[in-house]
């Protein structure tokens, strides 16, 4: 066998070992792909005793090996062979075998992930209950004097908030209510921190939040109990969770949503430069107003000084005026005293004229006269009434039926007719009673005479009847 000619000896390039090659490729892949989402069908799934997961993702043409270590898969339900899943992780190389692989940090069903489904379900539930209603949200104070912050005391969020407040308005006091913001116990710690802020009673507004992270990292702010604690908090609340693109249930239920913790501090704090400018303007206005008022007061003082009179002259004028009033008072008092004495003398004269003794004598004389006149009047009245009674008695006797009967007439009566005035009122055989001047007579009718033309009968039917009766009943 013929060997090729030996080449001339030259400098050879350094060859990489397999380990060096795989190591460089690994760093190159991890530097080029920070994180990637990959979707495919899960196969060759294995769970060794270490708790790590190893599987393969494939589609119709290619496949890639994947590993998910125990620290990332503890809260995820193990998938099944053939599931369509989405993973998020780092592109890397398993150096020992030179296998290209993905180190998965998150796994969810393809399409809408389980956490996203839970997020949407809770969002719908709380929205139907009205926890997102703008009408129930409390107003945020324009200038809070004290801000409470529910977050991790060692995280970047509190550093960002304090930095912004120090720059914009350092006079605002800040109290941190520490809590963990990631992990299984985070929801309970956040609720306890909110309740501690309420019990403290110092804060005017409460910031609840943390820095950015994955959906799993921010999941405690999607907890239903945390959302209800924020809604029930009497303090105005500001949700500042994650980055601007991150949305949590806490953002919807809080009174205000800030895209980042720094933005929350920006929203709650005024710019001190604006306030300093405002104070400077107010100081200038106050100074101008003060100087104007000072000038006006000085002018008024000068005007009053010109009007001010010498107090001694004022006192002399007042003393003179007092003497005049004293003389007038004395004159008025003397005139009133003289008038009152005159009125007293006049009243005494009238009182003597109206003496009770004199009035009593006059009244006694008048009473005696009235008594005499009354007696005379009563006697005269009795005499007049006696004479009038005698006259009336005589007149009554003249017209009395008894007087007529005393002249020889009679009144004829029956049991049915009180006074018989006409002969035709009787029938033969009727029993009659004739009342005389003294006593009465019972009789019976034997004959009825027709009326006559006698003047006496024609003028007085009663006398005619009596005549008829007398003729029929003679004793």
Structure description:
- The chain has helices spanning 18-32, 70-73, 114-128, 156-168, 186-200, 224-232, 249-253, 261-268, 272-307, 311-353, 356-399, 401-406, 455-459, 461-472, and strands at residues 36-46, 53-58, 63-68, 84-94, 99-109, 146-151, 173-178, 205-210, 237-241, 256-257, 411-413, 431-435, 440-444.
- The protein is of the alpha/beta class.
- The protein folds into four domains: 18-110, OB fold (Dihydrolipoamide Acetyltransferase, E2P); 116-270, Rossmann fold (3-Layer(aba) Sandwich); 275-303; 403-472, no CATH class.
- A five-stranded mixed beta barrel has the order 1-2-3-5-4.
- α4 (156-168) links the parallel β6 and β7.
- α4 runs parallel beside α8 (261-268) and α5 (186-200) packs parallel to α6 (224-232).
- The longest helix has 44 residues, at 356-399.
- The model is unreliable at 454-475 (pLDDT under 50).
Descriptive keywords:
elongated; 14 helices; 475 residues; 17% strand; 13 strands; five-stranded mixed beta barrel; five-stranded parallel beta sheet; OB fold (Dihydrolipoamide Acetyltransferase, E2P); Rossmann fold; 4 domains; alpha/beta; single chain
